[in-house]
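> forwarded from #structure-qc
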């Protein structure tokens, strides 16, 4: 099925790819701005639907605890990066949260509004 999907994708006009790329760059930049205003510094990404935010910059020390807190207090979900590590107890595994920007504009707007109501995050 992946070969058939790839073959179909190759038939798309070049303009489709340009628009797709621009749309996702805009969503990435929008979410990055929201997170930066909330006090989380982000790493630039060029080939992913995810942003990595440095939790230590805002005083958080545990990615899983941060992710639970974020859902309960802000109403936004993140992925604790330690869940992706073979050794999740390592300190560098607990330093980051992953945020997906492959969302609709309405979802990104809602997340931005929730972060604005909360103000700068402090752990």
């Amino acid at each position: 099925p992946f070969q058939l999907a790839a073959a179909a994708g190759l038939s798309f006009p070049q303009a489709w790819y340009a628009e797709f790329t621009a749309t996702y760059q805009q969503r990435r930049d929008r979410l990055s701005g929201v997170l930066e205003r909330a006090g989380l510094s982000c790493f630039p990404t060029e080939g992913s639907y995810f942003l990595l935010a440095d939790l230590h910059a805002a005083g958080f020390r545990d990615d899983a605890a941060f992710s639970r807190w974020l859902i309960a207090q802000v109403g936004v979900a993140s992925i604790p990066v330690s869940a992706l590590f073979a050794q999740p107890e390592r300190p560098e595994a607990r330093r980051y949260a992953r945020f997906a920007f492959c969302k609709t504009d309405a979802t990104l707007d809602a997340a931005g509004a929730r972060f604005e109501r909360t103000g700068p995050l402090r752990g």
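QC bot note: The two ends are 45 Å apart (CA to CA). The first strand starts at residue 41 and ends at 42.
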